[in-house]
UniProtKB/TrEMBL annotation:
The keyword Hydrolase applies. This is Serine hydrolase domain-containing protein. PANTHER family: BETA-LACTAMASE-RELATED, BETA-LACTAMASE-RELATED DOMAIN-CONTAINING PROTEIN. It comes from Planomonospora alba. Pfam families: Beta-lactamase.
């Protein structure tokens, strides 16, 4: 069925197509716009490798009124982490690194100040105890990932590595990016283009070329009631703890999210420096089609060997997150269902992927043959997860019959 519906500023609010079996998804997607929850957004789903949902609508840039089009890319924040993990696992498959080996084996300077036993797996699972960059990163250094990584190499862990996990919101990318650079001589962005996005023809870039950055949707703030809460909202004491952390400038949560200080750039994360820098924790610019296509290729075994993916999505850590406060769960770089990765019950055992700050979502489910992605530019009041994405995923699973 064709998805075109009412007009806004002369452009369709919703366009694209939706397999009749997934009419419920179209209803939910339209409903978000009708309720004023969206500015611009896109949602794409593959079932058994075939596209069954490809929807988009709304406004890509509130300042100019530019419409969201089929090929509109947008910064997907931490959805990037799953791409970076996949690059690391590709290198491991080729024998260039061992996730169980110390990081210092390939990055000797990293061993300083008690970090000699931190493994690549600790980086992938947020157990390294390095969620914060202690030294302020100057704006002039934003595109020098090696220099930022060198700052982390000089730090000591906040907790004993391997004894707890806490979301490495930005440092995840600088740490793993340097490991990738040391063993391959290339950046995560370069390997993503050469080994993943390029061969599959995906609209996905870890570091956007100038022409892609120029047509990217512009992120816009939504209502903010505390930056740390999950989309569904933790209950009781957890809610209080999250609120306290969100309001405390010295909390691990705010320190992890605030350096490098993106807010110092005009337009914040919309600034071309951020879009082209290719930070491996939050720098992926993609269309919903491109991000869903990434999971389609993963689920089909065309990026990693099936046995590699099965092992990678096996939960390594689960429970209270020292940075996000609420429960989180991770395999080797991939999120697993938890408060930070809200997943419908039918996918709670089998889904994996990653959310992005503000609401974006990438999800793969090998058992159900699903790959999906939601991208948007109206930021939700959540570090990780969005009820909009959850509702869409719920409608997809409910449509499977």
């Amino acid at each position: 069925m064709t998805a075109e519906s009412g007009k806004e500023g002369g452009a369709p609010v919703v366009g694209g197509h939706c397999d009749p079996r997934f009419a419920r998804v179209l209803e939910v997607f339209r409903g978000h716009f009708a309720a004023g929850e969206e500015l611009g957004a896109a949602f794409a789903v593959h079932l058994g490798g075939e596209p069954v949902v490809d929807l988009w609508g709304g406004t890509a840039d509130r300042r100019t009124g530019r419409a969201w089009e089929p090929g509109t890319p947008v910064l997907t924040y931490s959805c990037t982490k799953a791409v970076t993990a996949t690059v690391v696992l590709l290198l491991a498959e080729r024998g260039l690194l061992d996730p169980a080996a110390p990081v210092a084996d390939v990055w000797p300077e990293f061993a300083a100040r008690g970090k000699e036993r931190i493994t690549v797996e600790h980086l992938l699972t947020h157990q390294a105890g390095l969620p914060v960059l202690e030294e302020p990163v100057p704006v002039e250094e934003f595109e020098d990932q090696a220099a930022i990584a060198a700052r982390l190499a000089r730090q000591e862990p906040v907790w004993e590595p391997g004894t707890a996990h806490g979301y490495h919101a930005l440092t995840y990318g600088f740490l793993l990016g340097e490991v990738v650079r040391r063993v391959s001589g290339r950046t995560v962005g370069e390997l993503t283009a050469a080994e993943i996005a390029g061969p599959a023809g995906l609209e996905l870039w870890v570091g956007a070329p100038d022409d892609v950055a120029a047509r990217a949707a512009r992120l816009s703030a939504g209502e903010r009631v505390g930056s740390g809460a999950s989309a569904a909202g933790p209950a009781g004491g957890a809610a209080d703890a999250v609120t306290r952390a969100a309001l405390d400038p010295g909390s691990l949560m705010n320190r992890a999210l605030g350096n490098p200080p993106v807010h110092r750039l005009p337009g914040g994360a919309n600034h071309p420096v951020v879009l082209r820098a290719g930070w491996p924790a939050m720098g992926a610019v993609a269309t919903a089609r491109g991000l869903a296509g990434f999971y389609r290729e993963l689920v089909a075994g065309r990026i990693l060997r099936p046995e590699t993916l099965r092992d990678a999505v096996r939960p390594r850590v689960a429970g209270p997150d020292r940075v996000l406060i609420v429960d989180s769960s991770f395999g080797l770089g991939y999120m697993r269902p938890a408060m930070t990765y809200l997943t419908p019950e039918r996918g709670a055992r089998t889904a994996f992927g990653h959310t992005g700050m503000g609401g974006s979502l990438g999800l793969g489910d090998p058992e159900h043959g699903l790959a999906m992605a939601y991208t948007m530019n109206r930021m939700a009041n959540a570090v990780s997860g969005s009820l909009r994405a959850y509702r869409l995923a719920e409608a997809v699973y409910a449509s499977l019959g």
